[in-house]
Specification:
Elements lengths: L4 E3 L11 E11 L14 E9 L5 E3 L1 E3 L1 H5 L10 H17 L8 E4 L5 H8 L5 E4 L3 H4 L8 E3 L5 H11 L2 E7 L8 H11 E12 L1 H7 L11 E2 L2 H10 L2 E9 L5 E8 L8 H13 L4 H27 L4 E4 L5 H8 L9 E2 L17 E2 L1 H6 L4 E4 L5 H7 L6 E4 L5 E2 L8
Parallel strand pairs: 6-7, 6-9, 7-8, 9-10, 14-15, 14-17, 15-16, 17-18
Antiparallel strand pairs: 1-5, 2-3, 3-4, 4-11, 10-13, 12-13, 18-19
Helix pairs in contact: 2-3, 5-6
Length: 417
């Protein structure tokens, strides 16, 4: 019998069984559920986060069956112009920095709709592969000349790929390494698949930036791991891998790009690795008190946002939201947003339009509707893209509200600041 979810009793990285609860959001809808009707019944699951007392790794306690989360997906990376630009930079930077030859094989784990693979193809790479379990999204990659494996990545698949295509020089995984429950199987698969002089490069939201920016809405059921560098260094070392370079990137409000090779590999350890470890130590990132402060600061922000929404509604003002990303399920719950106080959510993805937001059941509309039915206030729920959203919606006559990392009501007709 396949169950919907399970709860961990030991650390996903070091297997230590002393877990300290740091966040509890109660029961929350799945981030990418997007019901078709307002009365559709949604399953809700506990959403709690713990920190390992031994290695410091921060992780979700609940593991939703991945078949529920990822075999039919409502997120296509190419719907975001900023991500297209980001992955063009990723392809250029990694291939140049790592001196990847045009004939070298490249593979992406969690290739989504092929947004990154397309950029590699544009650079002249033809030996490219993707692994994407969501068939509705993977099918979008068929026109870029990449071989796509429509299944979950693990050791078994890695061995099969080696048998069919040989070892891989560059393996990428962007915003998916945190989605994996059986991280050991994936790590072993990477070790089997990567060539001796190959590199594994992955991006994820950075725990330190999440804490600093109060980005609590990055917690949802797909995000099982919340990585800091110290636990990652220990974990990868235990599998014969080493981080040799870390680069800061701006996605998700603050992320890292980590370069990994087999231990004692051909590339020297860059000073950036120690720099990240030092800043975590100086910030006291893994202290329990840091997470207590995080909780308190979240509650202060919540009080501010709820007071604004209640006051605006009492004055007869109308409010919308811009963006219905995966983080919106928790975002709307914590801030108390639903169809009683939010008229609609604008989203540019056709996969979400004419549906309803997870949990809060707010109608999702397109930009044309936003222009013809403007609200007095619009809360930018994709806060990490606030500047771009304001710039492309200059004709909006209401006030944009930027909720995070600090609460700002954008003055009418003034440029973003």
């Amino acid at each position: 019998m396949i169950t919907n979810y399970s709860t961990i009793n030991s650390c996903r990285l070091c297997k230590h069984d002393d877990l300290y609860l740091v966040l509890d959001f109660g029961k929350v809808s799945l981030a990418n559920s997007y019901p078709s009707t307002q009365d559709e019944i949604e399953n809700q699951y506990p959403l709690t986060v713990s920190k390992c007392a031994k290695c410091g790794h921060v992780q979700l306690n609940e593991t939703i069956n991945p078949e529920i989360l990822f075999t039919e997906y409502a997120y296509a990376s190419s719907d975001s112009p900023s991500l297209i630009k980001h992955f063009a930079e990723f392809a250029n930077t990694t291939t140049s920095l790592l001196e990847i030859e045009k004939t070298d094989p490249i593979l992406e784990i969690g290739s989504n709709d092929g947004i990154l693979l397309k950029e590699f193809a544009n650079l002249g790479y033809s030996n490219i592969y993707g692994v994407e379990p969501a068939s509705n999204i993977a099918n979008r990659s068929t026109n870029i000349g990449a071989k796509i494996y429509t299944e979950f990545f693990n050791t078994e698949l890695a061995n099969r790929i080696v048998g069919e295509h040989g070892k891989i020089k560059l393996i990428c995984a962007n915003n998916v390494f945190a989605h994996i429950a059986d991280i050991d199987s994936v790590t072993r698969g990477i070790i089997e698949l990567i060539s001796d002089n190959g590199v594994f490069v992955f991006e994820n939201a950075y725990l330190l930036d999440t804490i600093k920016g109060l980005y609590f809405d990055q917690v949802y059921h797909e995000h099982l791991q919340y990585y800091g560098i110290l636990p990652l260094t220990k974990y990868l070392s235990s599998h014969g891998l080493e981080i040799f370079r870390i680069q800061k990137v701006n996605t998700q409000g603050g992320s890292f790009r980590i370069y990994v090779q087999k231990q004692h590999g051909p590339r020297p350890i860059d000073s950036s690795v120690q720099m990240f470890l030092d800043q975590e130590n100086n910030f006291k990132l893994y202290n329990n008190a840091t997470f207590e402060d995080f909780n308190n600061n979240i509650q202060s922000l919540v009080s501010e946002i709820r007071q604004f929404v209640d006051s605006a509604k009492a004055e007869g003002k109308t409010i919308s939201c811009y963006g219905c990303p995966a983080k919106f399920a928790l975002f709307s719950k914590v801030f108390g947003l639903d169809s009683s106080n939010i008229k609609y959510v604008v989203d540019d993805s056709p996969l979400k339009q004419n549906k309803y937001s997870p949990g809060s059941k707010i109608p999702i509309v397109n930009r044309d509707y936003f222009y013809t039915n403007p609200t007095d206030y619009c809360i930018i729920s994709v806060w990490n893209m606030a500047e771009a959203i304001i710039q492309k919606n200059k004709s909006y006559t209401g006030h944009f509200v930027i909720p995070m990392p600090q609460f700002i009501v954008q003055p009418k007709f003034l440029p973003y600041y």
